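Hi P.,

Sorry for the delay on this. The queue was packed all week, but I finally got your sequence through. Input first:
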Amino acid sequence: MKKVILPTTFLICFSLVTALGAQALDLTLNNTPVQVYFSPRGGCTDAIINEIDQAKSEVLVQAFSFTSARIAKALLKAYKRGVKVEVILDKSQRSERYSSATFFSNQRIPTFIDGYHTIAHNKIMIIDRQVVITGSFNFTKAAEESNAENLIIIRSKELAGVYLKNWQRHKEHSQVY
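Then the structure:
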């Protein structure tokens, strides 16, 4: 992997939905380690698996599309070694031919379907409440091999806390698969 030195300040802006509507949240993260990957064939899947393999306590997933057998197997491996794994998927995964929802559910990994939104388009993992994996990269074989995608891995407890709160809000309105 080619290392790129970025400025020490990393600014993130995204919307939080509150009872009053959407609200922007600005964070300035100083000296935050960040890794950036691009596909096709840019090592996104390997980077995700590497992070899952290092998880010690928890991996929380939100995914629009999840058909990557390699990533699913890495999550199962983590689960079997005692890491808490929970997955929230878009409602389209109920009917997808190659969805991981059934795989996770059959392995007793808590799996939820977010049918509240028109599309639950998130693609994130929160690992040990200190690493955030996000970007346009769907957890699919096509995303690694064929699509133009991006993946970013951010090591920040502060940012992971923000993503965790958002993940929990989505879990609250999701249904068990």
